[in-house]
């Protein structure tokens, strides 16, 4: 963290500060192209990083659930949020118990981890 005493206040101090700066050389065309090639394609979805505080017990439960589903914890959390949002969606239409059971019978059994 800088202090007020670190900030140049006069033209001479600014000049001395500017003279003390050093810059890296510009990337070569090959380095620039390699960097551009490493970027996601235009129109790709953007992932936003969020910080999330969880109680230890909940974090451990998420870790176990993610391991059982064979996905990273972040993927498991994202899918859980997507499911919660789908349940709350305004256009969500309830289905009959018979329709739900019919749909469930078509699913393959889940793998259980011992």
TrEMBL record:
Name of the featured protein: Uncharacterized protein
